[in-house]
Amino acid sequence: MSASAFTRRADAALADPVLKIAVERTAGTAEAKRGIAVQHFAQFEQARVRGAAIKDHVIEHLGHYLEQFEAAATAAGAQVHWARTADEACRIVIEICQAAGAKTVARSKSMMGEEIGLPHALAEAGIGRIETDLAEHIIQLAGERPSHIVWPAMHKTSEQVSALFKQHHLEPHNEETIPAMAESARRHLRDGMLGADVGISGANFLIADTGTICTVTNEGNAELSLVPPRVHIVTAGIEKLVPSMGHAVQLLRLLARSATGATLTQYTTFYTGPKRQDDSDGPQAMHIVLIDNGRSTMREEGLAEMLRCIRCGACMNHCVVFRQIGGHAYGGTYPGPMGAVLTPALDGLAKNRDLPNACTLNGKCQEVCPVKIPLPTLLRGWRERSWREGLEPVSVRQGIAAWAWVAQRPRLYRTAVRAAIFGMRRFGRGWIKALPMASGWTAHRDMPAPAAESFMRRYAKGER
Amino acid sequence: MSARADILAKLGTLAPTAGAAEALLVDPVRRAVAGDLTETFLAALTLPASGATHDRVAAMADVPGAVAAYLDTHGLDRAIFLPPDPRLAADWSGFKLSPVIMPNEPAVVAVARLGIAETGSLVFETGPCAPMLPNFLGLHHVVVLPVAAVVAQLEDAALAGPQPRAHYWVTGVSGTTDIEGQYIRGAHGPRFLHVILID
Question: What CATH number is attached to the domain comprising A19?
Fold first, then answer.
């Protein structure tokens, strides 16, 4: 069996001595800060139950709330567009940019933009793109993709960031400190942000009753890149709806604590339509692109709970697999546990059948999820579907079939276990360093040697 | 079929039963704010994560003096951007006022409609006399807030009826943890936030 693309990427990630340090620095800090935030919010569990209930309510009545949102946003002067697929969404955005005569767009970090491949589409259309979020700026300079949904550049060490800024910034930092590097980016990005023709953002929430979109940032880059340009384009997944501001507020309390450990993001902004006649600033036009891209199918095919996701990143920060391999190894837009559920839905299971298997099922992701998404259950669902659809390699199917045949015959099974214990203990006591036919395991780590007798045998002897 | 028709056909447009959405607003799960609202607000405002400073004056007429004192503390010239907001009417004759906001404006003065005790947030809306951009451009963000305008929870900030173009909550200064998770103030916007309370 040849190694899959995922296995190759994971192997490369594990062999990278720098990556694990970088991931550990950011994810470790995030884990600690979230822990403290949750300790200080005694009703966190009740808040999660309410958050999940709000999202479930919306997902059940999604069509209704989409129509309500469209009517309210239109009444406020925004133009609402609908896109079935990523390509359709990109086409709509590019057409709006071209109609506005846009040479440059300022982008405020949005995972939806990444999901639909907007950076690539803008490049193909010859439209300049300024990424205004510090992390997105770093990966734009590096020509890479985000490795985390909240900290897209978490795989970069400060040393690597320093080198990039010195290569690309006109007036780079003089001293090798993180504050000096941030200052260099501040200087570099400011003029581009203020001079862009179009500002593009995602939306953390779409508020149905007022047609409002909500963005949250800590840097204030969304506001700086959405107020000066002539046109503001929003790309949002249809699952981002909430009935009203009061519902959004309850989810905001969960989002900030789960993502960064703050009680609220530094800048929480609600936009309703374009600049009013008398307003002193704001864009002339506002376009909102409502994007399905597989979400309605997810709802039909048993993944409705995944549509609760508010993109906080807690599941990946707490994932033992993510912490080892980082985000790029997952191959899709979304990494970690939520990505392992989403990517097969967005990009097909056949290509991504390894992702649901890159999971220990330790349940940590579900434990920290602010909207109680049963991620391990959904991952098991993909594993079962992969089996049903015959996507598992022949060796795996035959191996499991052979095991099942033996396991259904208890006498034979016990004999086989005794033989295996006898055989394995010949290769080591305590820890086995090398085992025939198991080099995939023992090449990287020792295998614990089995106990001298099986549980069943000791139980039968009366040891209980 | 249009994309809109396709998506809605797949989703259906079943309306929720009356009161179902409203039921999810009853007793929102939140940290209760007890005791003096202003004290709670200031406690949240000055947490390390927010890192703001504050001052307290008796009336709007005292605000220019408090702004001057703040600028002096930071060794800044008495030059500010002041929006044409009638709520900020006072004698500003001792200041050099920027006619338009500059990309590297050192200090911006603004007035908040509300302060939120739960989170230490300041609430702003856009309007003819309330531009939004200056509040995100200046290095020092000096915000005037009447004590009577401090409310308990985030829900109290919502506006009934037609919404302004933008409604925004500022909680602390522009910050980032994008390089190795280390917290840096003043990523793009304000690095300093100073609140002047008016009794």
Answer: 3.40.50.10420
From its phi and psi, is residue B43 left (phi > 0), alpha (psi between -120 and 50) or beta? alpha
* pLDDT at residue A430 is higher than 90: no
Average pLDDT score, chain A: 94
CB contact under 8 A, A267 and B137: no
Average pLDDT, chain B: 95
Domain assignment of residue A41, yes or no: yes
Mean pLDDT of A163-182: 96
Can you tell me the distance from the alpha carbon of B148 to that of B145, in angstroms, rounded to the nearest whole number?
8
Q: Do residues A56 and A187 share a domain?
A: yes
Q: Tell me, yes or no, if B43 comes closer than 8 A to chain A by beta carbon.
A: no
- pLDDT grade for A1, boundaries at 50, 70 and 90: very low
Chain A contact set for B6 (CB, 8 A):
84
- Residue-wise pLDDT for B65-120, tens only, equals 999 999 999 999 999 999 999 999 999 999 999 989 998 899 999 999 999 999 99
CA distances from A73 to A65, A260, A279, B187 (A): 12, 30, 18, 31
CA distances to A44, A239, A322, A324, B197 from A364, rounded to whole Å, are 16, 24, 12, 15, 44
Both A112 and A245 in one domain: the answer is yes
Q: Is residue A284 part of a domain?
A: yes
Contact A302, A62 (CB under 8 A): no
In angstroms, rounded to a whole number, what is the distance separating the alpha carbons of residues B190 and A412?
72
Of B49, B164, B176, the CB nearest to A182: B176
Question: What residues of B are in contact with residue A132 (Cβ under 8 Å)?
Answer: 188
Partners of residue A267 on adjacent β-strands: A217, B170
Q: Which of residues 101-130 of B touch A (CB under 8 A)?
A: 103-104, 118-119, 121, 126-130
Distance of CA A83 to the CA centre of its chain: 21
Cβ distance B133 to A276 less than 8 Å, yes or no, reads no
A108 occurs within a structural domain: yes
Q: Which of A47, A290, A292 comes nearest B29 by C-beta? A: A47
Tokens of residue A457, six digits: 């045998």
**Domain residues for A25?**
11-295
Answer with the one of A272, A295, A318 that is the final residue of a domain.
A295
Contact B24 A135 (CB under 8 A): no
Which of A295, A313, A340 corresponds to the end of one domain?
Answer: A295
Radius of gyration of chain A measured on its C-alpha atoms: 25
CB B85 within 8 A of CB B117: no
Please give the Cα distance from A396 to A379 (Å, whole number): 18
Digit-coded pLDDT (tens) for A93-111: 999 999 999 999 999 999 9
Residue B152, chain A, CB below 8 Å: the answer is no
How many structural domains does chain A have? 2
Q: Pick from B12, B155, B189: which is nearest to A246 by CB?
A: B155
Does residue A324 sit within a domain? no
Output Rg (C-alpha) for chain B, integer angstroms. 20
Q: Per-residue confidence at A427, pLDDT binned at 50, 70, 90?
A: confident
B-interface mutation test, from A218, A224, A276, A372, most B Cβ less than 10 A away: A218
Question: At A3, is the pLDDT very low, low, confident or very high (cuts 50, 70, 90)?
Answer: low
Q: Which one, of A7, A343, A18, lies nearest residue A154 by Cα?
A: A18
